[in-house]
Automatic annotation (TrEMBL):
Residue stretches in coiled coil: none
InterPro entries named in the record: L-lactate/malate_DH, Lactate/malate_DH_C, Lactate/malate_DH_N, Lactate_DH/Glyco_Ohase_4_C, Malate_DH_AS, Malate_DH_type1, NAD(P)-bd_dom_sf
Family annotation (NCBIfam families): MDH_euk_gproteo (TIGR01772)
Keywords assigned: NAD, Oxidoreductase, Tricarboxylic acid cycle
Annotated Gene3D superfamilies: Lactate dehydrogenase/glycoside hydrolase, family 4, C-terminal, NAD(P)-binding Rossmann-like Domain
Binding site for NAD(+): 40-46, 66, 126, 149-151, 260
Quaternary structure note: Homodimer.
Highest rank taxon of the organism: Eukaryota
Domain Lactate/malate dehydrogenase C-terminal: 179-342
One GO BP: malate metabolic process
Active site feature: 209
Name of the protein this chain belongs to: Malate dehydrogenase
PANTHER family with a match to the protein in the record: MALATE AND LACTATE DEHYDROGENASE, MALATE DEHYDROGENASE
Lineage: Eukaryota, Viridiplantae, Streptophyta, Embryophyta, Tracheophyta
Length: 345
């Protein structure tokens, strides 16, 4: 979902609703039927993400699953007069119904950080949650595209891959760690510093999704601006610490939820567009990769009818980015290995 689409949806009145799909090039009766399931839909990310996916005209059925609380969220969101039918599912016995027939499964289930914690400190709780939810995905919707938001993404994505391998359903083209929030932040911070229109800015962010493993490539930023080295270094550090900035500001009440819901909605929309055959849909994501010697790595990915169509290379890096790339590898490698070991224990 683009910012302009959100602005358009905000502007339109219910009486003009019939025309907005046509304006985007999809007549309502020709947009393919697409089911999206959100696991963890009653949470801080899950609720605004449910709202944003309800606004997306590419979705025809929205399944909201959590251990509790989803009937209320679903009843609330279902009153919005957009295309999708919304259903709430609570408790493990309803997980099958939530997942059956899903084209895209988004997973923001799990605990968030408190000040002083690293994302890896969430491993003990979230690893098990992701493992069990991915077991259900393998059973009930093995062909869905899976968008993993739950932290630590650097470990939860490898966990998901091992669960799918064991179930015999693994397709590396269909598994994504959602790193879009890093791109969203890099764009915002860069536009502010370079004093350019944020709508014209793009910045690839590669590596992983924790601290120094987050590597924004400001040398490839559009619109280009002549920032000093110290400014680039400060922007890099702010992007790497963006999550912590929010955790500290929330002072014990969780981590990024609203900006994450926005980022998650952008990424899921890109997945749906790819499935629907829209050409040239490219987003950064943490995927199985041969771009470096690490088995998983975030970089630009072209999305298509089967999920990942192409994992794009890193392009030319500045010396500072080359150093950042080497510096992130040991931590990212050990987080990936930790996930794989957990899944096979
Ligand atoms: N990838 C990224 O860029 C980001 C990731 N995150 C991560 O997203 C996760 C969720 O964050 P919040 O929504 O703020 O947390 P939250 O605590 O507000 O919500 C989590 C939800 O997950 C649900 N849940 C727990 N176990 C479940 C299970 N087995 N099945 C289904 N639902 C389950 C809870 O009931 C709760 O409603 C955290 O791990 C956080 O670190 C947060 C921000 C950015
Ligand atoms: O920082 C956190 O714990 C949540 C997160 O991943 C982010 O905001 O990037």
């Amino acid at each position: 979902m683009t910012t302009s689409m959100l602005a358009y949806l905000a502007r339109r009145t219910p009486s003009t609703g019939a025309s907005y799909l046509t304006r985007r090039g999809f007549a309502s009766d020709s947009a393919p039927v697409r089911k999206v399931a959100i696991l963890g839909a009653a949470g801080g990310i899950g609720q605004p993400l449910s709202l944003l996916m309800k606004l997306n005209p590419l979705v025809s059925r929205l399944a909201l699953y959590d251990i509790s609380g989803t009937p209320g969220v679903a009843a609330d969101v279902s009153h919005i007069n957009t295309r999708s039918e919304v259903l709430g599912f609570a408790g493990e016995e309803q997980l099958e119904k939530a997942l059956k027939g899903a084209d895209v499964v988004i997973i923001p289930a799990g605990v968030p950080r408190k000040p002083g914690m690293t994302r890896d400190d969430l491993f003990n709780i979230n690893a098990g949650i992701v493992k069990s939810l991915c077991g259900a995905v393998a059973k009930y919707c093995p062909h869905a595209l899976v968008n993993v938001i739950s932290n630590p993404v650097n470990s939860t994505v490898p966990i998901a891959s091992e669960v799918f391998k064991k179930a015999g359903t693994y397709d590396e083209k269909r598994l994504f760690g959602v790193t879009t929030l890093d791109v969203v932040r890099a764009k915002t911070f860069y536009a502010g510093k370079a004093k350019v229109n944020v709508a014209d800015v793009n910045v690839p962010v590669v590596g992983g999704h924790a601290g120094v493993t987050i590597l924004p490539l400001f040398s490839q930023a559009t619109s280009s601006a002549n920032l000093a080295n110290e400014e680039i270094e400060a922007l890099t550090k702010r992007t790497q610490d963006g999550g912590t900035e929010v955790v500290e500001a929330k002072a014990g009440k969780g981590s990024a939820t609203l900006s994450m819901a926005y980022a998650g909605a952008i990424f899921a929309d890109a997945c749906l567009k790819g499935l629907n055959g829209v050409p040239d849909v490219v987003e950064c994501s943490f995927v199985q990769s041969t771009v470096t010697d690490l088995p998983f790595f975030a970089s630009k990915v072209r999305l298509g009818k089967n999920g990942v169509e192409e994992v794009l290379g890193l392009g030319a890096l500045s010396d500072y980015e080359k150093q950042g790339l080497e510096a992130l590898k040991p931590e990212l490698k050990s987080s990936i290995e930790k996930g794989i070991k957990f899944a096979n224990a």
